[in-house]
Amino acid sequence: QVQLVEFGGGLVQAGGSLRLSCAASGRAFSENTMAWFRQAPGREREFVAAIRWSRGGANYADFVQGRFTISRDNAENTVDLEMNNLKTEDTAVYYCAAKVPGRIVYDYWGQGTQVTVSS
């Protein structure tokens, strides 16, 4: 099936930037919709951004649009999340997810990478 591994989490000051990467295995990576979700302590997991296989069309949650950019490299089987102007409320575990064509939900998830934004 699909395996996802996130990289790039860490500690950053408010206003700083981080780039998260997700390495995917599977022969059909380029056909999958890829997404980033996040989950802060005591909160439900929430959608951050998604990118489709076709032409790299992307969607963003309202609260991150303008600060974060999702991208993918199908040749390298990676999807990235560039996060700029980070806020303390962005502190969360960030998860990479994949939605296989023909499915409604995101079936495959990475283990998560911690992002901590300090003031």
Low-pLDDT stretches are none
Query: Whole-number radius of gyration?
Result: 13 Å
The residue fraction in helices comes out at under 10%
Average pLDDT level: 92
Total strands: the figure is: 11
Assembly annotation: single chain
Order of helices and strands: EEEEEEEEEEE
Helical run tally = 0
Query: How many strands, which pairing sense, and closed or not: the largest β-sheet?
Result: 7 strands, mixed
Could you say which overall geometry the principal axes of the C-alpha atoms support? globular
Span of the ends, CA to CA: 40 Å
How would you classify the helix and strand content by structural class? Answer: mainly beta
* Beta content: over 45%
Notes on the structure:
This protein has strands spanning 3-7, 10-13, 18-25, 33-39, 46-51, 58-60, 68-73, 78-83, 92-99, 108-109, 113-118. The protein is mainly β and 119 residues long. Strands 2, 4, 5, 6, 9, 10 and 11 form a seven-stranded mixed β-sheet that branches. The protein has a four-stranded antiparallel β-sheet with strand order 1-3-8-7, with no helix packed on it. A hairpin with a 4-residue loop joins β7 (68-73) and β8 (78-83). The chain starts with a strand and ends with a strand. The mean pLDDT is 92.
